[in-house]
Amino acid sequence: MSLRLNELRKHYGATRAVDGVTLELGARETLALLGPSGCGKSTLLRLVAGLEPPDAGRIVLDDEDITALPPQRRRFGMVFQDYALFPHLNVERNVAFGLVELRWSKPDQHARVAELLELVGLTGLEGRRVQQLSGGQQQRVALARALAPRPEVLLLDEPLSNLDQSLREALKDELRNLLARLPVRAIYVTHDQSEAFAVAGRVAIMRDGRITQVGTREEVLERPRSAWSARFLGHRNLFDAAALAAVPDAPTGDGDPVLLRADMVTLLPPDAPDPAGGGAGAEAAVTDATVRRTRRDGLRWQLELDVPAWSLALAWEGFARELHEPPREGAGLRVRVPRAAWVRLEER
Amino acid sequence: MRASWVSTTFGVAASAFLAVFFLLPLAVILARSVGDGRALAEVASNPFYWQRLGFTTGQALLSTALTVALGLPGALLFARYAFPGKRLWTAAFTIPFVMPTVVAGIGFLALFGPRGLTGLDLRGTLALVLLAHVFYNYAIVVRMVGGFLEGAAPRLLDAASTLGAGAWRGTLRVSLPLALPALLAASTLVFLFCFTSFGVILILAPSPGLATLEVEIYQLTAHLLELGPAAVLVVTQLVVVGAITLLYTRMQARMAVALPARAETLPRAHGRGRWLLGLNLTVAAGLILTPLLALAVQALEGANGAFPSLDNLAGAARASGVLGFATLGTALRNSLAFATASTVLALVVGFAFAYAVARGRWRVLDQLSLLPLATSPVTLGFGYLLAFPLLVTHPWGIPIAHALIAFPFVARALLPALRGLDPALAAAAATLGAGPGRILRRVELPQLGPALLTAASFAFAVSMGEFGATLLLVRPQYATLPVAIFNRLGRPGPQHYGAALALALVLMLVTGAVMVLLQRRGRSEF
User: Chain B residues contacting A, CB < 8 Å?
Assistant: First the structure.
């Protein structure tokens, strides 16, 4: 029971929008396709939906090759970025659109629409015109419409990107719960990592038409494959292995990129002692650092630290309680860096 | 924003012009028709006039139905697909809309006239009239409906296809219902144009059985001097047309709210869509280009069948013994002079009007802008004859009438451009020390260049081709190209037909050149 994409390719002139993508999606699984805008993720989704024919490659659903099947015969539900609700139909008729194509009887349609509107929390709005709905409500109608015909696969194309921040936060959780409850597998395309990690169990990172990494959110976040992915996911401490010669326990190598996971670095007061049994081979290293710059991002502090002994500059981020005094530029403190915080990456 | 003295002045000026040269003549006609109770009774009791009303309505309905049947598939395909040369096609579709009636009339005579290329003489039949009406209005349906759907249809059809509705079901359940308001608006407009059809009928079907109200008004006024019944017919026509225009503006308002247009790249057609598109483009090209090509071919045909030959052009340029026959040179000079004068006038009035509506408190004027569209050219000419008998001895009646006929087009081209101007720019200029007059000159006018150009070429083309009003107001020495063509057609003999062809060719080329300018930039609000 799986959906397999095999070496899918789609070129537009010289642009390789999708450049050999292979992916597998298990039953009831939600996979997030995460990448910056223009990486080809929406095109990939349109290939899966059948809205565009691929130049090469195959799409296989439960051992059946559906590459040549037109979208109307795939039974894949899709939630469009701008929802694409039918402006001439009210909420109920929008949700029932696919049921009409399946020749459901009127009472069955009615019951299914009611069921779905309850699921997305829009009961009572059946008769509304879609233009009268708020952005969040339109998004829910789009979801209900896509789910109504019980699709084999649900495809979501940046479904929350047109909503404002607070609504997006609320809907993120709602979507996750919904997708977890429903017996449907889903591909969720987004450029926003918090959305990807909130909604999906597995995340595929896409760059320039290719999938660079697939894994659980922990795998992807803690062991990004490339320096590009690390930076895209918000890691800021990326070094060239050659620049880490003075750091005990840091991976060495010929020019491989190395990531220091800032989430594992702790700050200590300036008078904190060296750990017992320090030196090479210890579980963690402790060294002096100076605050070069401070910045606040809401409740979080962002510090840039100079570590003279290692001739390195580090970025650190955390809450005030993790600091021992309000940080001042130029102040001294100590940093504790566990060995495991250093991750050698496979490519740039 | 506060209304400035500039917009107030413009509003007053535009209202004054419309009041004197539009409302006053209409009022005079109204007074003449009801003031003279006898005329009203005479027309109402005469079955002949009822017959004319019935025929006018019937042929307009038939023309509209045929136009929609041909244009709707084109509109759906245009909204759905991208294809090579699409811009060129879209431009070609406006040819009939801008081509003078007389040119198209001669084009169809060149195909299906007594001396036509096909050898099939359909002159004086309803079929030829309907064909010419479809030629004229095909573009309206394709552009209005296609343009309306183009933004939304592709992504909504994508959505429909993921819900199980393929191309055919998607068209049925999404495109058609969505297009309905635009389709109704386009049909109303087509009906309106066919209802007041004049030049086409006069040239292609000059028989009493096929006369529309508009033609009847002309006959009563120009040949029978029965001004009372003519006034009654004018009012009858105004009532019908006014009601339909009201309907049209309502539908246009509905179109405006339904779909926000959305720029998006369209897919190429493949498979069945490709065939349908090819078929459609062939039909459209045949319909639009064949009459014009036939005209050009016949115009350049010599007396002994030589081709190409300048015999006809030379014949048209030669002074003829018959009184009132303008030579090619005279007619061209008159046409260009009238077109220039009326373009300037239409731009001044249209701009004053649009500025007052967009910037000041002159919303009422907005409703007025379409009224001249609802008033047929013959009505306007008739009104001038009644209201300003002195103006008729003067050539000025013609450019004023032309400017009024062009006015709705000019206003509709300028209004969206003016409304689209960022008010923050005027505010910025004001904080930098510019008064309203200086803002107009230094900030607003420079940004309106493309819209003014569109408006000007519209006005110029309208004036070059205007036929009905000119025919009533013209004196022999001021004959324009369309009038000269019509005069020649009225005479038997191949040399007169040849000269008419040559004059029509010149008119077609001049109008075509103006249209190339028009197509450079923007669209109007139609």
Answer: 152, 155-156, 158-166, 169, 173-174, 177-178, 180, 257-259, 262, 267
